[in-house]
Amino acid sequence: MPSRFFITGTDTGVGKTVVSALLCAALDAHYWKPIQTGTREGTDSKTVMHLAQLPRSRVVPEVYRFTPPVSPHLAAQRAGIRIELRKIRMPHIPAREALVAEGAGGVLVPINKSQFMTHLMRHLKLPVLLVSRTALGTINHTLLSLAALRAARLDVRGVVLVGPPNSENRKAIERYGDIPVVGNVPKLAKIDRNVLRAVFQRHFDRAVFQS
Ligand SMILES: Nc1ncnc2c1ncn2[C@@H]1O[C@H](COP(=O)(O)OP(=O)(O)OP(=O)(O)O)[C@@H](O)[C@H]1O
Ligand SMILES: [Mg+2]
Question: What is the pTM of this model?
Answer without folding.
Answer: 0.97
